């Protein structure tokens, strides 16, 4: 049986915090969601149970994992909260068992270990298809726990179960390609030294006639190789058309388009990029770090031919792969984009800050642009500039927007401030 967590009530009476029943009128108004807590420290579990109770959730406490899985299978709780320090129990192995059980609730980690270990555990859970809410440091603060639960709607009412399998068919995707339903939004990129709009990244969206705007993560993985190549052709054609319209109005941001390793090896890519006129803005082809390193000779050949055609290459998500610096040296790269996982923690973690600073120094020594991706808090901009980052992008600065909105942003003297003002976010320390 799970161990009850108790505290002293009036007159010293012990109150069971796990199974305490809410008042009848409270039960009649709502159904309280269930959380199961796996934590070796009973004091931490007691505090957490109180916090969950205030937030409208019932909870059950376990100090060992042996009975946890049976309870999860039987009760299907909305939330599993587990500490990473479980003594003889292996918490990461438990995540794998949750994945094998096809658990469909949310998982929140309690971190009392090194940040690297916590991030590894989060990535393991995500790879297994678990809905990871991240981690909270011990002792937990009520406001952080509330924000964690609110971010995914975990609360008093049990959510309707949703199917996580793809909901689109190949025929629907084929129709979307033919009907022109795949449209482009553009993520602004800003120069740190001036705050001006310096570039845009073309991002595909599905303008579904019934479901509205759908993000790429919900349909790109379903594309066949042939459909993916056709989509790249469509994106390059539309993006270059939009960039030409901006140029005629005097707005000339660098245009970045994501391509796959298969695209890079296709002779069609060179033909598509030769549609540009000399007056068009610079075109940058972004490829992920891992893909950029796959085929040394062929990849270098295609990259060189693109460079001779006046194009630039950018290595996206730099830092998350185990790339060879010699390979990086051999490719004609004009830009490195530091992965958002490091930028997000640049002010909180010394190790993330060290990685950002090292990549920025590498880029500066190689004479190429260094873009910090995933900027969500503008307060980190002075630090990024001091490290040597030259450009920034992220939701804290500007979300992806339709092509006409780029014109308005590009004509503003301090575009980085104008974009942030539109989002309602504070300016922070902006150069």
Automatic annotation (TrEMBL):
Pfam families: EAL (PF00563). It comes from the Bacteria. GO terms for molecular function: cyclic-guanylate-specific phosphodiesterase activity. One of its GO terms (biological process) is phosphorelay signal transduction system. CDD domains: EAL (cd01948). InterPro entries: CheY-like_superfamily, Cyclic-di-GMP_PDE-like, EAL_dom, EAL_sf, Sig_transdc_resp-reg_receiver. This is EAL domain-containing protein. Residues 166-414 form the EAL domain. Residues 34-153 form the Response regulatory domain.
